[in-house]
Amino acid sequence: MGVSERKEREKIEMKELIKAAALKLFLEDGVAKTSIRNIADEIEYSPGTIYLYYKDKDELLYEVQSNAFGKLLEVFRENATHNDPVERLLEISRTYITFGLNNPELYDLMFIIRAPTNVDEEIHKANGGNCLDFLTDCLAACAEDGRLVVPNVQVATLQVWATAHGLVSLNLRCRLKVMDASEEEIPNILMATMESYIRSVTK
Amino acid sequence: MGVSERKEREKIEMKELIKAAALKLFLEDGVAKTSIRNIADEIEYSPGTIYLYYKDKDELLYEVQSNAFGKLLEVFRENATHNDPVERLLEISRTYITFGLNNPELYDLMFIIRAPTNVDEEIHKANGGNCLDFLTDCLAACAEDGRLVVPNVQVATLQVWATAHGLVSLNLRCRLKVMDASEEEIPNILMATMESYIRSVTK
DNA sequence: CAAATTTACTGAACACTGTTCAGTAAATTT
DNA sequence: AAATTTACTGAACAGTGTTCAGTAAATTTG
Question: B69, B109, B154, B178: best mutation site toward chain A, by most A Cβ within 10 Å?
C-alpha cells in the first residue's frame, strides 16, 4: 500500500512549499518583517499549519539558512577556480563580500541574526560547514606552498573570515556611517581593504 | 521665577532615570527581551510616560548606545597607553575584544543590532565617532613611524576594526560553532588570531 | 459498502510587543 | 479662587509567535 509513501512525499513537498514562501518573503520584505502569518497567507494556509511541519520559527529559519549556505558554496565554486591558492583566496574573499552586499537578507540569516542558532546543538554544526571547509582547504593549500605569513591554518581561516564578515556586517548594519565615505564608494573601499589585507598576510 | 529651570532639571533627571532602568534591564535580561513595558515597570511609571521623554524605542536605545561608547572609550584610555604606536594598537585590539566578550549586550547595541541606526542621519554620526578616532589616531601614528605594511590609514583602520568586530560578533552570534574549538578556549583563539593579524600588518 | 479511526487543517485564544491618545489629577499661573 | 498648563495614566490598536479544541476529509477496519 503506497499511501504512507505518498504521504511522506506530500509532507516533504509541504515543507518545501513553506520554505520557498519564507525565502520569497525574506527577499521581498526582509527577515525581520516576515511573520508566520505572512508566510501562511502567502501559501494560503492558516498559521497553525506551519507548526505541523516546523517545530517553531527558528527551525524554519534554520532550514532557509541551510539553503542560503548552499547558494554561497555555489558561487564559491563558480568564482574561486584559480590554481594558485593565494589568487583563489582572493577570489573567495571577493565572492564572499559581493554575496553579502548583494544578498543582505540572506547574509543576515546566515551570519548575523541570533535566531537559527537556537536549534539543537548537534544539528546546528551542519549549516555553514561546507562553506568554511572551502575556505579552510584554500588556506591549507596556501600554507602547503609556504605562502602564509602566519602558517597556522586555523588562525589564518579565522582571520580571513573575521575580516570579510567584519567589513560586510559593519556595512549592513550601517556602522560605517561614522567614517567619512560616501554611500556609493563603500563597496569599493570594502573590497580594496580586503584585498590589501590578503596581500599583507600572504607572500 | 525658577520653576521652568527646575522643570528642565526634572526632565533631564527623568530621562536619566529611564535610561538607567533600560541599561539595567539590558544587562540583566538582554536587549532583545527588554520591552518598553518592562522599563516602565522598573521605574514604576506607565508605558506611555516613556514616550513623553523619548520619541520612540530607537531614540532610547541610541542614548544607551551613546553611554556604551563612552565606556568603551574609557577602557581604551585606561588600557591603551603604550608609547610605541604598534604596541598601543595591540592594546586597543585586546581591549576591544575583551570589552565585546565581557559586555555582549552592550556590544550588541553598539555594533550588531539594527535598531539605533534609525535615528536621524545627522544626529547619528555622533555615536562611536570618538572610539573610531582613538583607533584612527593610533594607526596614523603607526603610519607616521613607517610601521604599517599598508600605509593607507583609512584602509588600515577599517581592517583592524573589521577583524576585531568580525571575531567578536561571529562569536557572540554563535557562528564559530562550526569550527572545532571548545567553548572555553575560544577567547584565547580570538585574541591570538587578532594579535597575529596585527603582527602581520605592522613592522 | 458503512462505520470507526486517523490525519490534516483551521482559526480563535493567549500572552506578548511598540505606540497612541482621550481622560484625569496635580501643579502653576492668572 | 478660578483658569490654565503640565505630567501622567491605562485602555486600545495592530501586530508578533505559539497552542489547541474543533472539524472535515481521507483512510482503515469490520
Answer: B178
